[in-house]
Design goal:
15% of the residues lie in helices and 31% in strands. The protein has 286 residues and is α+β, with helices and mostly antiparallel strands. The strands form four sheets. Strands 7, 8, 9, 10, 11, 12, 15, 16, 17 and 18 form a ten-stranded mixed β-sheet that branches. The chain has a four-stranded antiparallel β-sheet with strand order 1-6-3-4, with no helix packed on it. A two-stranded antiparallel ribbon has the order 2-5. It is elongated, with a radius of gyration of 21 Å. The mean pLDDT is 95.
């Protein structure tokens, strides 16, 4: 398999060995096999790892199928799939509420990943999960179209460089128009499906809230995260005494309608082109 990218214009000139390890985050095993098979070329000319890569160079990697074994994901109909952004490496779609992001079993169908597998089938590519949304949450979600770019995207997630803005509607009036909740989150000992704020043993979790409107006993919020814990927004708002509207886990026991949480905007700096990608998942929940 040939993997080709044009190096960004703002790249610092550097030896190929450094580029492959520190910019592209290729695994050590893959770098070893590329070196052994002389599988790296710049502008069509094979190069050794000591030679320098420059801005705008066309990089070609000759990869074996065994370097990145493809996952097995069954294909589904994709006619309802709403694509917000796509290029040869990335895909951002608008996830409907009520659909799981990925299968839990190899032969499972009906998830967003199955739909994307069907969508990509004509290209021979497979989708890879970068981050997740709860089944009940809708909105913008990012997938990779190949495994080579995944380590870079993982790094961007760790560095909080993939920015997501959520719309949320909660019960009641918040005590302040802008708030930051900094409370650790851990597993709920009484319910394996739930998480809870905890003083001991949890993971740091920071949520930023801005009230956009209060009406009819509900507050509409703009929410951003400094961390990405499971159910983070739902847990923090419930702990604040203002659970999300229609939250079956952390709110009222008999919700009517969809969970009022939506990933409205997603932005990141493209790992290869270094251009800013920003999408909005319309329509929102308000």
């Amino acid at each position: 398999m040939l993997y080709e990218i044009d190096l960004p214009q703002d790249l610092t000139p550097q030896p190929l060995a450094e580029l492959l390890e520190h910019e592209l985050f290729l695994p050590r095993k893959v770098r070893h096999f590329l070196r052994m098979r002389k599988g790296v070329a710049l502008n069509g000319v094979p190069k050794n790892f000591a030679e320098t890569a420059h801005p705008g160079d066309h990089l070609t990697l000759t990869l074996a199928d065994s370097d990145y074994p493809q996952p097995q994901v069954l294909s589904d109909d994709f006619q309802t799939l709403q694509v917000l952004y796509e290029d040869p490496w990335l895909l951002i779609v608008n996830k409907p509420a009520g659909i799981k992001v990925h299968p839990n079993e190899p032969h499972e169908r009906g998830t967003l990943l199955n739909q994307i597998a069907g969508y990509l089938q004509k290209t021979g590519q497979m989708p890879y999960v970068v981050h997740r949304l709860d089944q009940a949450t809708s909105g913008a979600i990012l997938f990779a179209k190949d495994p080579v770019i995944l380590p870079i995207l993982d790094r961007l997630l760790r560095e909080k460089a993939i920015r997501r803005v959520y719309q949320a509607e909660v019960w009641g009036k918040l005590p302040q128009s802008e708030m930051t909740i900094d409370r650790a989150i851990g597993r709920d000992r009484h319910d394996p499906k739930k998480r809870c704020v905890t003083a001991k043993g949890g993971k740091k979790a920071v949520t930023h809230l801005k009230v956009l409107q209060f009406a009819n006993g509900k507050s509409r919020l703009r929410v951003t995260l400094s961390t990405g814990r499971t159910h983070q927004i739902r847990v923090h708002l419930a702990a604040l005494g203002h659970p999300l509207v229609n939250d079956p886990l952390y709110g009222k026991k008999t919700p009517q309608g969809r969970l009022m949480l939506h990933s409205y905007q997603l932005s990141l700096r493209h790992p290869y082109t270094h251009q800013t990608i920003s999408v909005t998942a319309e329509p929102g929940i308000f």
